[in-house]
Records
---
Amino acid sequence: MFLSGLIVFSMKRKHLLLMLLSLEFIVLSIYFVLFMYLGIFNNEYFFSMIFLTFSVCEGALGLSLLVSLIRTHGNDYFHSFNLLW
């Protein structure tokens, strides 16, 4: 799952929305592996809740960035705006 998320992230770099979706897929795959690892060794799941909290904050930050870019430039294509100025 992680490698397919990385492949989609590297192939769909024209649209910011597709990049954010692939990043969320990568985070979900890491959470799944973490949850299975903690379940196998009978550890507490508290760290997985902290990880989920940070991933939700990261998703909200990415979505707010996407909304501000669409409001200023009209679309989410990377070639339609210049990031350097």
---
Amino acid sequence: MPSSVIRAYYYDALHTVLRIVFVSGAVYDYEAVPESIYQAMKAAASKGTYFNQYIKDKFKFSRHRDAHG
């Protein structure tokens, strides 16, 4: 199901970084995210709700860059 807030997300298992690309174009990298959190997000019916409940304000993050296109 497409999210109205999250355009895409990618997980780097080696570095445990979860990259979230928002519909607005903002791109954030969340650090030290366990793979179990990523897998649960993949399975969640609402990516935005899952993000707000289990990721936002729970992990250190940095704004990476804005997505183009």
---
Amino acid sequence: MPAVSEDATTATAHATGATGGTRPLRVLIAADTFPPDVNGAATFAEQLAVGLAERGHEVHVVAPSPTPNHGSFDEEHRGVTLTVHRLKSHKWPWHAWFRFVWPWTIRPRTAPILDAVQPDVVHIQSHLLVGRGIVQEAHARGIRIIGTNHFMPENLLDYMPFGPRTLPVALKIAWRDAAKTYRLADAVTAPTVLAADYLRDAIAGQQVLAISCGIDATRYTARNGRPAGNDIVFVGRVAPEKNLDVLIRALPLLPAELHATVTIVGGGEMIPKLTALVRELGLEDRVRFAGFVSDEEKRRALTNGTVFAMPSTAELQSISSLEAMASGLPVVAADSMALPHLIDGNGYLFRPGDVHDLAAKLTQVLTAPDEEYEAMRARSLTMIEAHDINRTLATFEALYRGEPVA
């Protein structure tokens, strides 16, 4: 069984005998966000569900409905048909797209699903709403529970009606609630060692395993040779915590002879403000907002890019950075949260929020001699091997069966 961390302090989950054996499992994945939502947690939940189904397991998903229609549906995700149980949801008033389920409705709505499906294991993707409610019902039925945390407070601060005085109290209450949920789980995981440490501290020392979200690197293409242009690519939600204004402000500080451009792939509520900033700086011919695109178009943008930039300060892993590495791109990322774990000879870290430092690090990549530039590309491709999705799936299968995972 593959190791999931190089950190000796990472906990080990021991066998409980809850499932065992080698037969295909019936897995129920519960999430507060799932495609068509576009974010890291939704991407991982979909990738996990599809990967498990392709390995022969019966997979069910419980998630909020993105429309007024709710119930159980056969949905196609990445070419695989999944049974998705959509709960009646409501739009979060402070967010462009997020929908939530009233907390007091979750247990009565998920209990019949558990009784009908009778899963071997319930795998929650957060403790916030759906996860918290269904865990209580699963625990009462003696069903094995795995909890994965993708939650970062910084990702929610801009969408909550809390002031600077009430926010610390709100976060304390939120983490206390998280601890109650995760303590009912047979194993708790997070995407990186740093995220595992963060969660372990937040919920008072509970054991947490570091397991990469993983990606299917075979779906990405690294081009041969150095691109003719100097296109700086970002992929992800165009949201406040991504700090894309820092990237846009850094662009005019790069040497003019580079003729550098920025391509932003993804949609989000910050596009109007960032578009206005681009006009203010006179960069209309150098910054392109691609918006929501197909997976094929996204992969093409990465393949044709010269360097990937990630200015966010709230990343527990950053799947889009992994996608860039699988595409053979050097990476320039903020020295914050989990991003430093992705930089090791394949690019540079810059001081978070420092426009001049970001410009300097991008310049180092774009002006690097061909041999040095190719070495950064090769290093990205080497590093991505540790994040292979099959390794992630095999590790979760072991956890589902109650087998020990180092």
---
Amino acid sequence: MFKDKSDNKRFEVIYKEDNISGCKILVDKETGVHYLFSWTGYVGGITPLLDQNGKPIVSPINK
């Protein structure tokens, strides 16, 4: 699923809506965990995305 790790970027943006406020879904390429980053102006926050059972959404990692 992920590109070659030689780019040394740990997080990959897989979804983005941006303006003065917006959100991004990031995937940690080392763990596969998905995170939601949301902001409005200069204020923002990040949280792991959870499935219907409350467990983190994780993508398979190609090693």
